[in-house]
Known about the structure:
Keywords: Synapse, Transferase, Ubl conjugation pathway. By secondary structure, the chain is mostly helical. It is elongated and about 140 Å long. 57% of the residues lie in helices and 5% in strands. The relative contact order is 0.03. The protein has a 4-stranded mixed beta sheet with strand order 10-11-13-12. Strands 1-3-2 form a 3-stranded antiparallel beta sheet, with no helix packed on it. It has 7 domains: 1-55; 63-203; 244-397, no CATH class; 403-615, no CATH class; 617-675, no CATH class; 680-879, Hect, E3 ligase catalytic domain fold, CATH 3.90.1750.10; 887-1021, Hect, E3 ligase catalytic domain (Hect, E3 ligase catalytic fold, 2-Layer Sandwich).
Amino acid sequence: MFTVSQTSRAWFIDRARQAREERLVQKERERAAVAIQAHFRSFLRRSQLQKDIRKEIDEFFKADDSGSSKRSALCIFKIARKLLFIFKIKEDNERFEKLCRCILSSMDAESEPKVWYVSLALSKDLTLLWIKQIKDILWYCCEFLEQLKPEILQDSKLITLYLTMLVTFTDTSTWKILWGKGESLRPAMNHICANIMGHLNQHGFYSVLQVLLTRGLARSRPCLSKSTLTAAFSLALRPVIAAQFSDNLIRPFLIHIVSVPALVTHLSTVTPERLTVLESHDMLRKFIVFLRDEGRCRDICESLEGCHTLCLMGNLLHLGSLSPKVLEEETDGFVSLLTQMLCYCQKYVSQKKSNLTHWHPVLGWFSQSVDYGLNESMYLITKQLQFLWGVPLIRIFFSDILSKKLLEHPEPAPTQPASPQNVLPVKSLLKRAFQKSASVRNILRPVGGKRVDSVEVQKVCNICVLYQTSLTTLTQIRLQILTGLTYLDDLLPKLWAFICELGPHGGLKLFLECLNNNTEESKQLLAMLMLFCDCSRHLVTILDDIEVYEEQISFKLEELVTISSFLNSFVFKMIWDGIVENAKGETLELFQSVHGWLMVLYERDCRRRFAPEDHWLRKDLKPSVLFQELEKDRKRAQLILQYIPHVIPHKNRVLLFRNMVSKEKEKLGLVESSSASPHVTHITIRRSRMLEDGYEQLRQLSQHAMKGVIRVKFVNDLGVDEAGIDQDGVFKEFLEEIIKRVFDPALNLFKTTSGDERLYPSPTSYIHENYLQLFEFVGKMLGKAVYERYDGDIADLGLTLSYDEDVMGQLVCHELVPGGKTIPVTNENKISYIHLVAHFRMHTQIKNQTAALISGFRPIIKPEWIRMFSTPELQRLISGDNAEIDLEDLKKHTVYYGGFHGSHRVITWLWDVLASDFTPDERAMFLKFVTSCSRPPLLGFAYLKPPFSIRCVEVSDDQDTGDTLGSVLRGFFTIRKREPGGRLPTSSTCFNLLKLPNYSKKSVLREKLRYAISMNTGFELS
């Protein structure tokens, strides 16, 4: 327990401590109050002082205008010093404007040194203060320039004022004080100007000019006047010229000035004399020397990012087009820097949209941020980029190739399709493309041809790398680039001749071995091949048959034969050697380029032959070997079928296709076997409503049922079931008839092209109810026809970027691009217009119809099954051979019953009637009468199942019980049981059987047969 004295003591101490703390708090409060009061008094005093100064400045500028020019420089200096002391941009912008006008007015005074503001620089007491003041004033001018908008009239006037201030005090040429006797002072004054300019550069002078120029020029029409643009560009040049083009100033000049969108275009239009200054100082050469260094170029690109790197490229290309002599001397450096810039942009080009990509009108999907403020000037930037693939630059870059003469060509080939007899001999130079070359290790030996490490080859390779990089980077103007590169007719053939001369012997092996060498040299050689393939593919794609076969633009036909042989071998080797299986990146791009060019040539040859017979086949690839590899699921065999099935004979491909179908039928249980029978679908079809009944009864069938057995019972026009049992023959007749009807243009599901009358989906097919379901049904019927081995009979320029269509009597305008009806077709966009119209007519306009047709076809026929056929081959697969019936082939594969034989009198008459008396159409009707198909089988009558048969009959079909010994003997010895003159020939289409009475006269046979085949009433003739 505490005592009373101890408690009192503790209480006393605690009370003293509290009192002490309260006194300290009170002192802090008093100090804070004094500080606040002092600060507030200071604020009030400063505010009052600022008001007084501003009032004084306003009174200074309110003086009469007539006397303002007479004010002494010292007065202006003092008032400027006061303004700068209290200067705030928002409050004092008008005062600063008046100060600048006052200073410029003093500089214009005549013969009054005391009035000239610059005269203070000569005063020993004021020189340093004046220099600091003018630095501050000029930097405030820069800050205002950074904020002003040149499209606003008032701001435009202020921009002119502040630029005039900068122009006046960064160069001594307009200083009157230095005229005459003051000329001796010019070096010292120039030093002061350089000091001022250095100060501005340190604070970001080039950034200010970049903002100003971009705001004024990053648009389709510049809003900077000639004087403004001249002043701004002159200011930009002054530091660079003063520093004698040092790297430290060339770098910011490139980053901030030369990267302004379409700057050179606007300079050439508004103030072309500024470009003369650039040329007089040889600026382009200095830019090339600076940028050809890889490190410097990468630094510039990283500072600018992709969008503005394109702007820099465009301006450099425009400068290059204006200075061809410089480019001729600095080609290597210019090509190098352009390639590096494109490679930098390419790193960020994406093939598809994602959360990390942005759309760029030239680069496509781009993973860097996109400056959408450049969109308005993108048209001009693109026009600048077009200099890269313009004729002048191409002539400069490819001068080594274009200056050489090709070997003399023979006379053009005949205009008719080439045959093995009229194919022209291949030039000896081009033959070298197929000779074996040494390994890559031995390429450098000077055995013959061009050494791969020679200066000439390296130069051409670098140029090809540049253009190939531009194709993969500038994705949205790829067609423009290809069109430009193919403009000169002699470039591609001379480039091909150059390729053929590479290495000791030139040729295929050289490029194949480059695939296995990850060296820079190999990449460049392959880039050359890719560029050649991409350009040639583009050219031949847009040329018509007259230009290819008659005029033979760029390539002679014998050159196309040689090139296609090279490409065929190259692609085959890439696949067969396993290079394509795991290809990615550059190797995959190479394969796509070479394969694309190959297929264009192959498809062109399929339409109209220029190559010899069996030109596309690989003699070293046996079909049996390929089929064995397919059985083992080898990837390379599958790739052969996917990419170059034409290296296998057509007959073997058809057999392979049928084998695939047969295997699937077995797998699905659609084949008759001892253990099970396939499910059969029965349908009844009225001949008068064949399409409607077929559509209603078949459209709901499942994919499995469509592939299965379908039996048809026809009902004639009288409502009576037709005679005959469907054992596939009636269904084949149904298929041919229904396909013929849906493709009839009168139905308006399909239309025909003018001239060759080829079918395509009708854009106005929507007038039919459920028209898309009808197209799907057509696809199913086509698929079923191919699945069952049925060979059926399937048979202006505008002024704007729009397409006008007459729809049900009304004119409908379709814009090919947004706002296309207001965009005129010009020389610049006419190629794009052609592509847009073709894409609209053959894709956009009939997209839904085509998709519906394909959706009906593909469930029955797998895409990989038909990928092995070209377009004409697929047409033959669907429609059968479009050739006349080969009677000799039919006769060779005919089987006779009932006493008939090949030398029988009636049989001899039959073949003679078919050959001599029947027209081709009647022979087709005869074939349809017997087989239900009007065209011969794809591979000939040897593949008709069951085989074509002719049987001698003595009685009508109702009384026919089959062949007996007596009937066979009577038929064999031409003994008639009774005169058959009143009976007509009949047929069993399910069995491809012709039932022919034993006629006594050839004329009777001809008459009865012609009547029978023309009736087209199925089994009812009996």
